[in-house]
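Methods — Computational structure assignment.
A single polypeptide chain was analysed. Its primary sequence is given first, followed by the predicted tertiary structure written as structure tokens.
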Amino acid sequence: MKPISSVIIFLLLVCSAVWASIDSYHCAETSIVQDMNQALLKTLTGKREAWITPDTIQSYRQHLQIADLKSRSFVSYALGDDSHSLHSKQMKWQSGNHILTFQSYADCSFATVWGLSDQRLPLSFLLLSLVWMAASIVYFRRHRTDRLVLGKMVYAASDHSFRDWHGEKIAFTPMQQQLMELFINTVDCKLSKAVICETLWPKKPDASETLYTLIRRLKPIVSERCGLKIVADRGDGYRLASDSSSKKMSDRLSKWNRCHL
């Protein structure tokens, strides 16, 4: 799994938590308005006088089903739609020639509405995103030892792939791939010609020319894509070297070989 994939999944889970939280908040607002509508309708059905009395407020609040609204909602003559507060529908009341329009309002803050909403699904998404993040961190820490960085080249032991700093796979031929893996899995990246020939061409009596051709074709790829070079080691073999400090490269390879050999 690539780090970018892990980040994308984490962001999707967080976005799902935010979306679910907003949706639950709007559902709570809808429930509050519906409760005020039914309470106001029942109150006006039994109302006899044209004015609002304490008994009107008490009757209205008794019909409310959401307990937290009983101390936050009140009945008033319709003042028109107020987009900054929660309110019921405007309802007309008639007695004889008297026609009045009533409306109920709720003094609910954002925190109050959020507290009345069902946030279990958003919290589940949020918890899942945190678990995913923790698991990803553990995963990448465990698999970090499977990667070796030399020059501009990154070798992943998990899939035996060579990549450059941009993450693009270096297109080695099968024989070049085997030789590069021989280099990095050998102390100091030094290989004798005999070892190379016996490993790559075990049935060929003399593979010197084939080895020479392989090295000649591999050198420009290693130089351009890997930031490394293949040098002849006193005529007896070849060595994979870096333009940087050879001691740093040797120490890095020693740690790598202790973990993987």
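Note: The chain has two domains: 3-116, 151-260.
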